[in-house]
């Protein structure tokens, strides 16, 4: 089997209530000479530059390659100055590499007739979901949908003072009840001094974890905070590859690592991150956007990683492309779990008419 074609697919749909006027994805499609096609997503937010990297710099290097030679292809792109090497091993180039890796795994699963998590070694058939980035005023709606874990935070506007944060978290705890998991996202908005104070508030309400309380690369402040609070810390969505994630795990004092599969280098790197985390007693709780391809990629990883505990589900973002893109949409069940797709590869099928409808 040989790779015949590699192309980027840019999709865009208007959205309300988000920080941008449209929701964009960059997908990559890899087709083989045997007619098997793999799909991957490049980054949580699509940008035309990522599509240009795929079409102009990566595609010519992949045509004629054996898609089963995934580790060698990954290393080839990582070390090539035309792809990743000359751009500092971060950013758009690694987003593109992530999508390529996911698509190659999709091909391998389809060729073998197995879902990716089975090829990796299945650990579970479903994962507990948490409602993420939801509206604090809609807690009852989320509860009625089956969620038993909820993440809120200060995502917009000026950060509140401690009294305001205390009132917000107290209200949330009353709304979700004592048994539900309450997760809080700092969104990298605090310095160490403020983070310590916020953590003390979260301790009073038995927060499950405190996500990205400080800048994602400030491992020293993260470790200092971990030593001064009983609230577990979580981070990792902004780390590229296992190299950066391993530094975070070893130095940052976190108890939950959160790689974003479409950003960190793909399924290959996410499983390496999971293994490093497991060796240090750290749990895997991947970040996940709202795109169906992103969700499917995350589910295949948590379906295989033995230390995975949650699947993130974006509760507030509601726009047509999200629900129309797959022929069979992924859903959260009434008991608050998501089933791991069991079809070959990612276990999903895009609707070609919808792809054309939203293609930019």
Number of β-strand runs? 12
Mean pLDDT level: 95
| Gap from first CA to last CA | 31 Å
The topology string of helices and strands comes to EEEHHHHEHEHEHEHEHEHHEHEHEH
Radius of gyration: 20 Å
The domain tally reads 2
**How much strand?**
15-25%
Q: How would you classify the helix and strand content by structural class?
A: alpha/beta
Q: Which bin fits the share of residues in helices?
A: 40-55%
Largest sheet: number of strands, sense, barrel closure: 9 strands, mixed
Q: What is the CATH class of the largest domain?
A: Alpha Beta
- Write the CATH architecture name of the largest domain: Alpha-Beta Barrel
Uncertain stretches: none
Please state the overall shape, judged from the principal axes of the Cα atoms: globular
Count of separate DSSP helical elements = 14
Q: Could you explain the architecture of this structure?
A:
The protein has two domains: 111 residues, Enolase-like, domain 1, CATH 3.30.390; 233 residues, TIM Barrel (Alpha-Beta Barrel). The protein is 41% helix and 17% strand. It has 14 helices and twelve strands. Strands 4, 5, 6, 7, 8, 9, 10, 11 and 12 form a nine-stranded mixed beta sheet that branches. The protein has a three-stranded antiparallel beta sheet with strand order 1-2-3, sandwiched between helices. Strand 1 and strand 2 form a beta hairpin. The model has no long low-confidence stretch (mean pLDDT 95).
């Amino acid at each position: 089997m040989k790779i015949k074609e590699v192309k980027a697919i840019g999709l865009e749909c208007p959205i309300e209530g988000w920080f941008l006027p449209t929701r964009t994805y960059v997908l990559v499609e890899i087709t083989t000479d045997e007619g098997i096609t793999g799909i991957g997503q490049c980054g949580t937010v699509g940008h035309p530059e990522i599509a240009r990297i795929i079409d102009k710099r990566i595609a010519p290097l992949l045509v004629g390659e054996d898609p089963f030679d995934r580790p060698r292809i990954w290393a080839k792109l990582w070390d090539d100055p035309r792809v990743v090497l000359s751009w500092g091993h971060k950013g758009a180039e690694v987003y593109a590499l992530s999508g390529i890796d996911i698509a190659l795994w999709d091909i391998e699963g389809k060729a073998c007739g197995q879902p990716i998590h089975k090829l990796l070694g299945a650990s579970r058939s479903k994962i507990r979901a948490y409602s993420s980035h939801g509206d604090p005023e809609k807690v009852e709606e989320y509860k009625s949908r089956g969620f038993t874990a909820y993440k809120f935070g200060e995502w917009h506007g000026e950060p509140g003072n401690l009294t305001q944060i205390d009132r917000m978290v107290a209200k949330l705890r009353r709304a979700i009840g004592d048994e539900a998991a309450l997760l809080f996202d700092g969104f990298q908005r605090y310095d160490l001094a403020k983070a310590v104070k916020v953590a003390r508030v979260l301790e009073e309400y038995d927060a499950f974890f405190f996500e990205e309380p400080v800048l994602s690369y400030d491992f020293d402040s993260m470790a200092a905070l971990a030593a001064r609070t009983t609230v577990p810390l979580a981070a990792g969505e902004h780390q590229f590859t296992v190299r950066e994630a391993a530094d975070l795990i070893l130095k940052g004092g976190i108890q939950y690592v959160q790689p974003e599969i479409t950003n960190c280098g793909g399924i290959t790197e996410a499983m390496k991150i999971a293994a490093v985390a497991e060796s240090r007693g750290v749990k895997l709780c991947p970040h996940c956007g709202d795109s169906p391809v992103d969700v499917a990629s995350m589910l295949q990883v948590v379906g295989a990683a033995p230390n995975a505990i949650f699947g993130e589900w974006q509760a507030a973002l509601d726009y047509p492309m999200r629900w129309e893109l797959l022929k069979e949409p992924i859903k959260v069940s009434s008991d608050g779990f998501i089933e791991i797709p069991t079809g070959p590869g990612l276990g999903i099928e895009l609707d070609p008419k919808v792809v054309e409808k939203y293609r930019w």
